[in-house]
């Protein structure tokens, strides 16, 4: 039993059970190209250390402690609970506990994890003298080689937004864990029914939501359950209100998207705010560029001028429509391909006209600004692109257009699949952004040239479909507006 199991059990017993039965696909959100243990050892001037191995017992770790004071990934267990301490300093029955966080803050949340560590280490007869968190220095910038001393910050206090909060040891010592009772309950639990609570759909949507509540997947396109940001949709369903068109307006918060959803169902499936959509489309100037980027996230910067938690662009796709013809340009790189991508983009993107991207403000606009900062020589031209950038998501997320086939989803994939179900993302090997990142990492590390080309082709297909989808959505919006005008 691991701490993560207890956390799952405390969130929901069924979640714990299902996670035991299911092999969950683990995908590392971060690209970690640095040996963190080596880097921390340099930071703390540790010359000799031991790195624990999987399934090691407490007795093995304690034996190792006779020869080494510093142990990375120190494994212990007590009362059926297994832990892995990121770094332990141990000397004659006393120890210091170090958490290592790929984060630019040292939050109290980690103190809660340390309470489990305390339970197990004290169960093994160790005395904990102090607790530390080692986390990333947000002001660090990579220059020529990694400076481990400047990269990490070590603290015995929690740090939030640069401010020192409480002492970690005092916090951990103040937590009383009744783990014996929880472990007993976990042992006894046999079957848990799905019960919908805010733990199912809260900040982190439960990975088993679709298993527990399959009805949400098979509901009609115009079901009341597709109403977005609605507190009362389940209550309305229980009261016999099945469809958006019958929503009880007293129990609808009334934001623009919700009203567009209800009006769409009342008008046979599609709602268009004709005047506002016309204004939005009229602002677009030809030639129109449809742009999409792919990137990876590096908590520890690997290349010059990158800060901690910076992203690295590795691909773009660009479709250009001049009103008659559609042309396509693309570039994909390996390693530090920032300049290659910036130069290729500047070569291919028209110097005038609108540039459309989906969720542009939160993605493409920021990526272009980052490129401009990395390469002052291209700064002017790159920032000119941003001045012409228009967010393709706007008509949908502001309630100018809603089609009940969107089923309350506003992603590019959903809208693409809705307007053209012949060319679906589901038909591609790479069907979403996270898979693209995974395949790009595999492509970068691949030694087999044939396989590398296969990965490359998959990535080009995926990113290319993104921008082709933007073009199709643009044409669709024009079409529905002209249909409305004909009425
Ligand atoms: S969806 Fe809800 S009930 Fe189902 S496992 Fe997750 S948290 Fe538990």
Uncertain residue segments: none
Terminus-to-terminus distance: 65 Å
Globally, the shape reads: globular
Biggest beta-sheet profile: 6 strands, mixed
Shape-level CATH architecture of the largest domain: 2-Layer Sandwich
Q: Strand pairing plus helix content: what structural class?
A: alpha/beta
CATH class of the largest domain: Alpha Beta
Mean pLDDT: 92
Give the domain tally: 4
Give the spatial strand order of the biggest sheet.
1-2-3-4-5-6
Q: What is the beta-strand fraction?
A: 15-25%
CATH topology value of the largest domain: Nucleotidyltransferase, domain 5
Give a list of the ligands.
Answer: iron/sulfur cluster
Rg calc: 27 Å
User: Which bin fits the share of residues in helices?
Assistant: 40-55%
Work out the helix count.
21
The count of β-strands is 15
């Amino acid at each position: 039993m691991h701490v993560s199991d207890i956390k799952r059990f405390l969130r929901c017993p069924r979640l714990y059970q299902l996670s035991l039965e299911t092999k969950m696909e683990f995908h590392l959100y971060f690209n970690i190209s640095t040996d963190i243990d080596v880097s921390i050892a340099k930071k703390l001037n540790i010359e000799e250390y031991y790195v624990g191995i999987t399934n090691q017992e407490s007795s093995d770790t304690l034996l190792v402690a006779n020869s080494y004071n510093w142990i990375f990934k120190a494994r212990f267990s007590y009362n059926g609970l297994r832990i892995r301490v990121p770094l332990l300093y141990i000397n004659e029955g006393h120890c210091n506990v170090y958490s290592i966080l790929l984060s630019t803050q040292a939050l109290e949340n980690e103190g809660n994890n340390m309470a489990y560590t305390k339970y197990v280490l004290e169960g093994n007869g160790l005395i904990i003298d102090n607790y530390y968190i080692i986390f990333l220095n947000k002001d660090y910038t990579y220059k020529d080689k990694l400076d481990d001393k400047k990269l990490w910050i070590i603290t015995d206090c929690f740090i939030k937004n640069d401010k020192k909060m409480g002492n970690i040891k005092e916090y951990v010592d103040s937590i009383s864990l009744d783990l014996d009772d929880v472990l007993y309950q976990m042992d006894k639990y046999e079957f848990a029914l799905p019960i919908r609570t805010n733990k199912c759909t809260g900040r982190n949507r439960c990975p088993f939501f679709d298993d527990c509540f399959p009805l949400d997947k098979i509901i009609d396109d115009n079901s009341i359950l597709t109403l977005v940001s609605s507190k009362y949709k389940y209550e309305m369903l229980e009261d016999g209100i099945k469809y958006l068109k019958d929503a009880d307006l007293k129990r609808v918060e009334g934001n623009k998207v919700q009203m567009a959803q209800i009006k769409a169902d009342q008008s046979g499936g599609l709602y268009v705010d004709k005047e506002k959509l016309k204004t939005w489309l009229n602002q677009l100037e030809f030639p129109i560029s449809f742009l999409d980027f792919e990137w990876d996230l590096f908590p520890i910067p690997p290349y010059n001028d990158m800060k901690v938690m910076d992203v690295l662009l590795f691909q773009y796709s660009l479709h250009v429509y001049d009103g008659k013809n559609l042309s396509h340009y693309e570039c994909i790189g390996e390693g530090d391909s920032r300049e290659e991508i910036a130069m290729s983009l500047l070569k291919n993107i028209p110097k005038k006209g609108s540039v459309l991207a989906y969720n542009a403000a939160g993605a493409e606009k920021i990526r272009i600004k980052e490129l401009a900062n990395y390469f002052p020589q291209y700064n002017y031209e790159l920032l000119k692109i941003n001045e012409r950038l228009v967010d393709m998501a706007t008509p949908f997320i502001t309630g100018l257009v809603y089609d009940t086939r969107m089923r309350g989803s506003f992603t590019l994939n959903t809208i693409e699949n809705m307007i053209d179900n012949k060319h679906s993302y589901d038909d591609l090997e790479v069907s979403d952004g996270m898979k693209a990142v995974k395949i790009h990492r595999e492509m970068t590390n691949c030694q087999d040239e044939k396989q590398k080309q296969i990965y490359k082709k998959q990535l080009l297909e995926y990113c290319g479909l993104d921008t082709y989808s933007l073009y199709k959505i643009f044409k669709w919006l024009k079409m529905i507006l002209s249909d409305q005008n004909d009425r």
